[in-house]
Amino acid sequence: MTPLAHSPHAHAVTSVSRIMATVMAALVPATLFGFWLYGWPAVYLWTVSLLAAVAGEAAVLAFQQRAVKPALLDGSGLLTAWLLALSLPPWAPWWIAVVGSLFAVVIGKQVFGGLGQNVFNPAMAARVMLLISFPLEMTTWMPPMGHLPGVLDSLAVTFGGQHLDAVSSASLLGHVKTEFSRGLDLQQALAGHYAPLSALWGWRSGSLGESAAPLILAGGVFLIARRIITWHAPVAMLAGVALPALLMSLIAPGHYAGPVYHLLSGGVMLGAFFIATDPVTSPNTAAGQLVFGLGCGILTYVIRTWGAYPEGVAFAVMLMNAATPLIDRYIKPRIYGRTRTGETLVVEAAKKDAA
Amino acid sequence: MKLFKLRGGIHPEGRKASSADRAIRALPLPPRLYVPLQQHVGAPAKPVVQVGDTVLAGQLIGAGQGNISAPVHAPTSGRVVAIGDHPAPHPSGLSAATVTIAPDGEARWFEHDVPADPFALTPDDIAARVGAAGIVGLGGATFPSAVKLKLSRKSGVDTLIINGGECEPYLTCDDRIMRERAAEIVAGIRLIQIAVGARHALVGIEDNKPEALAAMRAAAAGTGVEIRMVPAMYPMGWDKQMIQALLGREVPAEGRSADIGVLVHNVATAWAVQQTICLGHPLVSRIVTVSGGAVAQPCNLEVPIGTPVQALFDACGGFASTPARLVLGGPMMGHQLTHTSVPVVKGSSGVLALTQAEIGLTRPAPCIRCATCVRACPVGLLPLEMAARIRTDDLSGAVALGLKDCIGCGSCSYVCPSSIPLVHYFNYAKGELMAQARSKLKQEATKKLAEERNARMERIAREHEEAAAARKAAKAAREAAAKAAAATEATA
Is residue B424 assigned to a domain? Predict the structure, then answer.
């Protein structure tokens, strides 16, 4: 006799692997554009990230004597590695990708108990770890569409440890920060380095995922349309960056860059649509996600503007990840027939009489 | 017409097309009818016939007992061949007290008195007739209708809502009854309106049933009964969701809709009320949808209560393929049938034979906290958090999150990408809490008895001691008196 099944006896056509696959599909345009900008080294780095994540996850699951196949097939490890790869300097050496991916899936996820159990976004945790541990490799950027090496020469860039000093440059956020420290004002710092239109398409040094804001936005809109994510966290995060930027640039335009500069620089777009919407590490109510996104945005701005690092998305997201249980504890939906505090609703006799 | 904002809800695939255009067909009488004595919420009915008795259609065979109960009637004329246990339509597959009738095929009706003008009856008279006819909520809740009528009249209801939502996938029995018997339903609605003294009567029908809407609008024209279209979504048939959609009023937690001046009945219940009051027929049959991918010819059948489920499938051409699961009721809240010998009861709206592809449930995966369940919950609960508490046996934690407000609609389980059986967790926890409450009551009763016994024993012991002390004192007094007397004598 088959065991008794419980209702409901129907189920929506959905699964975890389908969700992960949809998110990865949404990343494809921006990723391909990034490959085009930064050439074969970026392709190799991305590939190494994904392979390392799969291998690391399989090894850990086998070590724990848990089923390897379902955990690998859900695609969460691949997505984590993909997001990490998008946040790395495209010409970083292979071991950066391997160390980062292993850290993400092993320390960031499996140590907490696997899918759904981690407190911090694994990709952001890995990025922060890499940035603190290997600051040189993590801040050596390439200008896009520069002198792109061929398929074989690129192997030397990713796997051969070829020095890049000759062609490397700072990212825009890093450049502005450095120029400030030299006592220059914003106008001078940005001169020749920033044009909103080229920033829109990511036509500057940066990670794979910093390129092409419209493509990232399109991916995000696609996910909202497919109901994989909701608009709350992304919109709140963008507002959290844009509003303080607007305010500060109005107060002191010579020193503080405006909202467009901040929205189109660094990982804000990727963070808003693909990182802050990570279901595992974000609050589970719409109101909670608004608070979470706003926090991510404001913290990003604060870290960029007054912190030691030029970019703050990863730190901001991790700080808000830590606040997520707290947000979930205080922001809960109102239960039908009850007040926000859980008391039974009182029938308004007047309302009844009037009807 | 203004509709009010709804919370949560899902849009499951309707799958109603295969049976929606099949007119209601009367099912031929099976060789045996198995009529359970409990087909309603409340106390089971008590048999009033004996084995060997001849009964007529509509004759009382089980009398309601207590305040919340409903009588049971013979679905057709014939002979009572057994009174005893028969497998009940319950997931446990356990047996329940059942009256077995061998139909004589003549369908002779029991003489019922029919009022000359049903609309001149007093409210109490209508409620009494509805109670005597054994009418219960036919939407599936099976709460005795007369109890609801009396309660609503007492608490003063201004609006009667008739639920034509039929939000469960596959089911089309309410759709068909509205299309084919709209005039009778409207008459039933007006009778219920009189019974409770409601000024307004609204019928909410989902927008995926245009034919039913048209038929009901035509039948209701000029009667004061308003027909309203509501969006098709699940669980629109939840009475509180329907009240919210039509009136924007919210029933307080742990309360009843009567608390806010509303009474909700199902369309099929309104039809049953009309049949009872106008024709004198108690509730002895109902419309059942037979559907599912494994059924050869899905259809709607008018089925005598007590017909074995197998007879329904046989009438639909049997199985086209081996069903992966048999379900009594709708797929969202119905329960699995382990075999087809169980009878159709008053609350059986559908019998489904589903293929594996239709069920579509895969092995549960870890929760990714996607909160789709939170958005789907019509009550405003956090299903993922409640399930996490129950997994670790923290039932009080789940209760604090609102477990007791869960209506078990299954919206959360339906949308869960990890296929976590959330409703199963919640029902397990609710059952566990009930068992704990029962054992606590039992413990308290035992404790009280033990304490009383101790007190009694102490009192007896004390009384013994006191009696002994009294005897001793009396003896001492006597001796002292004797001594004193002796002393007086000696000195004298």
Answer: yes
- Put simply, whether B399 touches A (Cβ < 8 Å) is no
Three-state secondary-structure class, residue A308: coil
User: Do B376 and B310 belong to one domain?
Assistant: no
Does residue B123 belong to any structural domain of this protein? Answer: yes
Closest Cβ–Cβ partner in B334, B372, B402 for A9: B334
Report whether A284 contacts B371 (CB < 8 A). Answer: yes
Which residue range(s) make up the domain with B169? 17-26+111-315
Q: Which two tokens stand for residue B277?
A: 């009051």
Query: Which residue in chain B has the smallest CA separation from A14?
Result: B417
Statement: residue A211 has pLDDT above 80: no
Q: Which residues contact B282 (CB under 8 A, 6 or more apart)?
A: B58, B60, B71, B73, B112, B132, B133, B134, B135, B276
CB B258 within 8 A of CB B234: no
Is the domain of B305 the same as that of B393?
no
Nearest to A347 by CA among B290, B256, B359: B256
Give me the phi and psi of B371, to 5 degrees please.
65, 15
pLDDT value, residue B225: 95
B262-266: strand order across its sheet: B225-230, B200-206, B159-164, B262-266
Last residue in a domain, options B383, B410, B432? B432
In whole angstroms, give the CA distance from residue B294 to residue B290: 10
Tally of domains in chain B: 2
> CATH number for the domain including B241?
3.40.50.11540
Closest approach of B447 to chain A, Cα-based (Å): 33
Chain B residues inside the 8 Å CB shell of A12 = 10, 12, 360, 414-415
Mean pLDDT of chain A: 87
CA dihedral A353→B3→B7→B13, nearest 10 degrees, is: 140
Would you state the pLDDT for residue A167? 54
ipTM of the assembly? 0.88
Residues of B whose CB is below 8 A from A7? 327, 331-336, 408, 410, 413, 423
User: Distance from A14 to chain B by nearest Cα, in Å?
Assistant: 5
Shared-domain flag, residues B127 and B220:
yes
Nearest partner of B202 among B145, B142, B264, judged by Cα: B264
> pLDDT under 70 in chain B at which residues?
1-2, 361, 491-492
Q: What is the pTM of this model?
A: 0.88
Q: How far apart are CA B399 and CA B385, in angstroms?
A: 11
- CA-nearest residue to B324 within chain A is A2
Q: Are A214 and A204 in contact (CB under 8 A)?
A: no
| Sign of the C-alpha dihedral computed for residues A208, A214, A217 and A218 taken in this order | negative
Distance of CA A265 to the CA centre of its chain: 13
Q: Tokens 């009051």 map to which residue?
A: B277
Query: Is the CB of B169 less than 8 angstroms away from the CB of A13?
Result: no
Same domain, B123 and B214: yes
First to last CA, chain A: 55
**pLDDT level of residue A195 (50, 70, 90 thresholds):** low
Cβ atoms of residues B73 and B147 within 8 Å? no
